[in-house]
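Structure tokens please, single chain.
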Amino acid sequence: MADLIEYKCPSCGGKIEFDSTSQQMKCPFCLSEYDLETLKAYDEELKADKPDSEMNWESEAGSDWQQGEAENLRIYKCQSCGGEVVADETTAASKCPYCDNPVIMTGQFSGDLKPDLVIPFKLDKEAAKAALLKHMEGKPLLPKVFKSQNHIDEIKGVYVPVWLFDAEVDADIRYRAKKIKRWSDQNYQYVETSIFSVRRQGGISFSNVPVDGSEKMNDTMMESLEPFDFKQAVPFQTAFLSGYLADRYDVDADASIARANERIRQSTLNEFRKTVQGYDAVDVEHDSIRLQNGKAKYALYPVWLLNTSWNGQKYTFAMNGQSGKFVGDLPSDKGKAWAIFFAVTAAVTVISYLIGMLLK
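Here you go.
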């Protein structure tokens, strides 16, 4: 006895049946109609879907320090957040660049991997101060006294540890796309929805996908400082630490893989989605993203951290030490916010009233 083949509606997923009146396959739930050949082709597409493969990485990030290479490096530890930063013996580290609490020198640096690469600082402390002032310009909800009373407690140039991932990706993505046509006559308004199964397959390569290697550095803040120009990266030398701090990584390469996979996956989905055009709506039905030849490197990225205090609260800002891109949350004046809200509401009410009067 032959197996009974059941088809699901591509539109709503309901069990589809043959309709003798239209001689089509018809969904009793959403009333969509399909010819049998279209359903067979769609079913074959579903069978061709491939699962994601496990994304494995080959990590050769960092190297061992050579004898005597790290003799002039010192460790400073924050007594509040527990963070550790590395600096050369001539650098004075009085406060933690992350939480602004005092740090103490705990001894000679040892252990950890030596960075493969470093992007040197291009902008100085004065540029960071100027960027903070510019960041506060044009903010209507910013309290007026914040700019005048805001006190910069500490500005530190910090090399943030970053794991850089390279990978080649093969992707197979199926989309459910819609084209919607609307028209009307004297009696009715009509909507015709055409549904398409769109498939995209191909490869894409990624180089130097960064993942922050510091738990203390806010990941969202660090990613907001991107992009860093990796073309200006150079082989690491301890001389680059002179006058700066280097955060001691506390998230290793293996622990950073999940974030690297997610960033690569999302970027792949975004790039492939750009190729599906000409539809009113597009949704991913299935995706298979397979990673190959994954490798990791260890680098230091330049960041200026500015800790400020106002009205009993601390605010942390960050600047890309290479490009000058500046990020950080500012306080808002709730009184101003409500005033703007009521002003806009009143304006909309008046405009609506005038339009109503004109239409009478």
